[in-house]
Design brief:
Strand content: under 5%
Helix content: 40-55%
Number of strands: 2
Largest sheet: 2 strands, antiparallel
Distance between the termini: 19 Å
Order of helices and strands: EHHHE
Length: 85
């Protein structure tokens, strides 16, 4: 599958509050250079309080849980036409 160019601009203010929490807790850490596994470690260590996002079952953040949440954000951006390419 060919790589898709990243969007030039995303209307972050149009994201749901749930997606904003995912971006804040997961995407920004990954963008700062942490791997998904390292992001999971940070979340498990810090146990952030989510107001609009259900934590994972048993309260353990995994790479799979984080990747699923990031896919949800991507789908919201694509479905809502929030990105310009």
């Amino acid at each position: 599958m060919p790589a898709v160019a990243p969007p030039r601009k995303i209307d972050w203010s149009a994201l749901s509050l749930r997606s904003r929490e995912i971006v804040l807790q997961c995407s920004l850490r990954e963008a700062a250079g942490l791997s998904i596994g390292e992001v999971a470690d940070v979340l498990n260590r810090e146990h952030p309080e989510f107001r609009h996002l259900e934590p994972p079952p048993r309260g353990v953040y995994t790479k799979g849980w984080i990747q699923a949440r990031l896919r949800e954000v991507r789908r919201e951006i694509e479905a809502g036409g929030l990105a310009t390419y």
